[in-house]
Amino acid sequence: QVQLVESGGGLVQAGGSLRLSCAASERTFSTYVMGWFRQSLGKEREFVAYITWSGGRTYYSDSVKGRFTISKDNAKNTVYLQMNSLKPEDTAVYYCAARESPAASYDYWGQGTQVTVSS
Fold first, then answer.
1. What is residue 117's three-state secondary structure?
2. Nearest to 98, CA basis, from 19, 37, 8
3. 63-88 burial, b if ≥16 CB within 10 A, otherwise e?
4. Which among 20, 44, 51, 89 is least buried, having the fewest CB atoms inside 10 angstroms?
5. pLDDT tens sequence for the chain (119 residues)
């Protein structure tokens, strides 16, 4: 059972930056895909970005493309989400998630970390 722990959230002004971290409790296998999702108050959870553990292939939602960067550190079993040029609409609880392969569903989730962007 993989456990994921997010950190790095906080309050930032519009235009600022934050970096979120997601630490996995155990070694994730090469087939894993790691994703970031977010959920704003009163809205459904939405996909933000993913990265494949092997090869580091990335994909972003249109709403964050060009502003957010997902990356990983294999040695630390950690995935990051660098968020630049933050906007008030980026305010949400951000969740890290993992799936065992590109064909699987996201079965492992972190507890979430709050990001608040003030205007």
1. strand
2. 37
3. ebeeebbbebeeeebbbbbebeebee
4. 44
5. 789 999 999 999 999 999 999 999 877 677 799 999 999 999 999 999 999 988 889 999 999 999 999 999 988 999 999 999 999 999 999 999 999 888 889 999 999 999 999 99
